[in-house]
Amino acid sequence: MPGVKRSRDGAEKESEGDASPFMPMFETFRDELDQHHDRRERIIKTSRDVTAASKKIIFALQRVRTLKSNIPAKIASENQQRATTMHVQLAAIATDLTGINVWRYQRQISGGIQEYMEAVTFDHYLKHQTLMTFPEASATLPDGIELTSDDYMLGIFDLVGELMRFAITTMATTGSLPGSSAEVNGDVTARDILMDMRELRMSFQALDTASCGGTGLGRDVEKKMEVMKTCVEKVEAAVYGMIIRGRERPKGWVPDLTDDRQAPLESY
Amino acid sequence: MANMVDPKIFESLQAKIDEDQHVRDDIRTILQSLERQGRSVQSILSRAHSTPAAHLQPALDAAKEAIAEEVTSIGKLSEATVGSPYYKYNGLWMRDVQNVVFAILFCGWLGGMGEEGIVAEPGKLLTIEEVGQILNVPVNLKDQDAFHITIEEYLQSLITLIEELARLAINSVTLGDYQRPLHISHFVKDLHAGFQILNLKNDSLRRRSDSIKYNVKKIEDIVYDLSLRNLVPKAGGAL
């Protein structure tokens, strides 16, 4: 890089003009940093938009009352529109998030992707009553947007919260815990949402995340683990309440939910 | 009936967590020696504050040797992170790498660090490319995901250099060297002018670059004190 060397006679150069010999170098740095900040801001904005749209999708999905069946047409088409918009928004920043920049802006995009994961895995659960796998989840994102296993995992933590709301609201409005039964090799087995939530909880608890402490994933895992456990326990308590007081329960009664998002559909 | 959770999902999550831990452990081991080497280099370089410029060469040679060990560690760091996303782990070593870059810049300014293609001369600012050449790693990578020195790291190290030079300006006067504060003043003002054209956001670079002006003022005060007492050597006069 020319013009960046200074020698001992630097003091004499002052008379020639005040221009710093380092200017060309700093101009290059300025251009690079400007590009970096622009990319960063575009990504932050998209992350916010994706978060907002994903929350709306989740909200709409909470109006579903059945498990392992198609999403009602009206909700499905609304959500399809939102998903399309999100895909366009994400595809627009794909070039900002390629190669070395996948992790450079990870912290900026992470929030949006996690919320998005929560939405797609919830949608998948309602339709299939299974946990969407990582490759499946990754495939729902537009080309060029890479899914990290951290964001996938943190999204699943939040999914448990949605399952709790879904379970409790459904219990409150229909009087039974959502579930399904299927026939495999002539045996009919039933599986309800609480069993699924416990399975998720067990899987998470078995995960050794001690090594993540403090960095990246570790910042969130501990907190989310506690919230996730509480969610399962809330449903356990609600099921207990339903069994013990089930017959006395007036239609539309909702168990106490500190984080209740949805009002009961009807009451007398 | 199939379960809710395909066991493979969590198996693969665990595998990724373990792999991540493995990389982090490797990096931490290297950083431990880099930190130790860093302390040794800093202590050698701080001799500049108590040694007249004319007698500094032994210290510069010793510093260069000590920095060579750091270069080896940086090489190991670069190898250990092959195949890992650079920005996933760079937070772990940023501080240590900045210290190494600063040591190179300071040693270079004092007149050390000469090697093939890099002429050693006092008052010299090594460019990020020259620092990369000394460290034997790429700089400012954009298309390739590998270990490198970033612009931000270089700029952070420049700020540390300015702080160190402000201290050196004071100590030069104590050593009876009235010429060096003038060189420092000029050099730091030129760097300050460079920093002023950067559009910094509210990040750590911004917060630290805010300190440059205090160091500029500190150095100006020294030059003022010298000129007030007619101690400023005539330009071109004997050193």
Automatic annotation (TrEMBL), chain A:
InterPro entries: Translin_C, Translin_fam, Translin_N, Translin_sf
One Gene Ontology CC term in the entry: cytoplasm
Lineage: superkingdom: Eukaryota
Pfam name, any one: Translin
Record keywords, A-Z: Cytoplasm, Nucleus
Region (Disordered), start-end ranges: 1-23
Annotated compartments: Cytoplasm; Nucleus
Family: Belongs to the translin family.
Protein name as catalogued: Translin family-domain-containing protein
From TrEMBL, chain B:
Main location: cytoplasm
Subcellular location, record wording: Cytoplasm; Nucleus
GO molecular function, one term: sequence-specific DNA binding
Keywords: Cytoplasm, DNA-binding, Nucleus, RNA-binding
One Pfam assignment: Translin
One GO cellular component term: nucleus
GO terms classed as biological process: RNA metabolic process
Highest taxon, organism lineage: Eukaryota
Family to which this protein belongs: Belongs to the translin family.
Protein name: Translin
Species of origin: Calycina marina
Lineage: Eukaryota, Fungi, Dikarya, Ascomycota, Pezizomycotina
